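Appendix B, Record 12. Input sequence as logged:
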Amino acid sequence: MARRRRRNLPTEPFEAEIESLSHDGKGVAHLDGKVHFIDGALPGEKISFIYTDRRRDFAEGRIEKLFSRSPIRIEPKCEHFGLCGGCSWQHISDENQILEKQTLLQEQFKRIGKIEEFELWPPLTGPVWGYRHKARLGVKNVDKKGRVLVGFREKRSAFVADIKSCPVLHPSVGEKLELLSELIGTLSVRSKLPQIEVAVGEAHVVLVFRILEDVTPDDLLKMSAFGEQEGFTICLQRGGPDTVVTLDGQPVPELSYSLPDESVEFSFLPTDFTQVNPEINRKMIRRVIETLNPTPEDRILDLFCGLGNFTLPIAKKAGEVVGVEGSDVLVKRATENAKKNGLDNVHFYAADLFKELKGQPWAKEKFTKVLLDPSRAGAKEVIEKLPALGVKTVVYVSCNPSTLARDSDILVHELGFKLIKAGVMDMFPHTAHVESIALFEKR
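Logged structural output:
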């Protein structure tokens, strides 16, 4: 939901000099002793801005006029940049985006983790356009516009952005948003279809239409013809994830992705969590394996393992791997994928890693190394239990540098580990999202 505009905000523009970037990619300035976060502003720029929020400890604004231009600023490729909330950094050159993310990571380690000395990995980079293989698109029938909008939400708003294409989505979908809009505009449920889940596999593309009321036979014919013409498998979702079915009521077809270097292939359903950027995912897995250096003597614990994205390739080289994940659905998928790949040295458990783990059988065992890949909330609760598991090596994959830095503080200053190496991975180009990896060794 969009943040409500706070009352009594000044309407006139104010001038500021931008000092740095915040962890979420906004320009940072200080005015009257208060930190200001300015959307769209870059370090070194002199700007004027309009307030969008003002609180006791901080304020927010959006850039109104640019007086001096940062050398890293470029013209955005997408005509919808600034309106659409899918991207926030298209105004920064590709090479500088990743450098800014690296700087943000270092600053979080220093400020939150109180760690300054460690080796930097070279950033992992890949395609910057057409990279998104997973997405959730909003859908809205707007009578005043006489059309159905399909796309990401507007920046700072719950409204669906009025866009006709998206260059960061896989082209099979990103170049056909207008066609999707036209199709949905002909359906009886055009005002009862709020969302499309996009899932691109190596063999085909699935679109899951979330519907709030049943479709008509005529709707089914139109969607079926469209899917066949454009190369989509269209599914319908009336309720939760377990209600997703094909147009003829059959179970949802599985998609797949592969790791050629590790000779592993994964099957997944369109509503399963998978990484959005397959090329960076492959490079990330390679770095994890090189860093863990699994051997037949290793028992490795993979916490927050999902459908086994890291677990299975690690099991190709380790003596035994145990994967733990909070979702029963993903544990089932991981177990199935292990069987499909002929791996019998990997075992999966479902457990809430933010709660007490004493009753968990794997928590009573010993491991040589551990891999962590938590959500944005981090892994604070479980890392405090690592010493009891006998772990000497920790590899931490993070999607939030702030919680990584917080957890690093615990690992280094409370549990006796040392941060050896860390680096960023460009999983989400043109956004301020920072994916990173860190290696810790027991001192």
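Residues 199 and 232 are 10 Å apart (CA to CA).
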